[in-house]
Amino acid sequence: MRVEKCYFCSSPVYPGHGIMFIRNDCKTFRFCRSKCHKAFKRKRNPRKVRWTKAFRKAHGKELTMDSTFQFERRRNAPVKYNRDLWRRTVHAIKRIEVIKQRRQARFIKNRLKSGLKLQEEAEKREVEKGIHLLQDPEVTAAKVRDAQRQRQSGKERAMEMETAD
Predict the structure, then answer these.
(1) I want to staple 52 with a disulfide (CB 3.0 to 4.6 A). Which of 46, 63, 102, 117 is the partner?
(2) Do residues 129 and 122 lie in contact, with contact meaning Cβ atoms separated by under 8 Å?
(3) In terms of DSSP bridges, do strands 4-5 and 19-22 run parallel, antiparallel, or are they unpaired?
(4) What is the pLDDT of residue 165?
(5) Which residues of 55-77 are buried (b: 16+ CB within 10 A; e: fewer)?
(6) pTM of the predicted protein model
(7) What architecture is the 1-62 domain classified under in CATH?
(8) For a pLDDT cut of 90, what percent of the chain falls above it?
(9) Per-domain residue ranges of the chain
(10) pLDDT of 127-142, one tens digit each?
(11) CB 9 within 8 A of CB 17
């Protein structure tokens, strides 16, 4: 069973699924769904359509150059069945998948770091813009003390008035 890739969005196309378009020069194009087929017929560029793998790779959203991608290449030459080779291949596939996931996680983490820096800079700019709204804690504490003194003196005056009557 060969799992093909969609020509437009690069998602997997399983046997019996999707649409296959064959051009007059015998070039075949496989599409996973009608959305991809229609976009292809409208001559849309996959690198400019935001939801495709091509866009994500072209704009640095996903890992592009990595040695683990070499193993996913399509091979047309059939290999004679060998039990030991098959066992080693299956073991290698699992190992490669683990390595690939680790690298992708590291890539995403590094990508998010730059976003955090940008967010921090934006927050600094916002604070600088509204610095006049912030006050020194000592000034605030002094104002609170003055207000308390005024309340206490107001109560004392009220008591004096009551005792004078």
Answers:
(1) 46
(2) no
(3) unpaired
(4) 61
(5) bbeeeeeebeeeebeeeeeeeee
(6) 0.52
(7) Roll (2.30)
(8) 44
(9) 1-62, 65-134, 136-164
(10) 888 877 777 778 888 8
(11) no
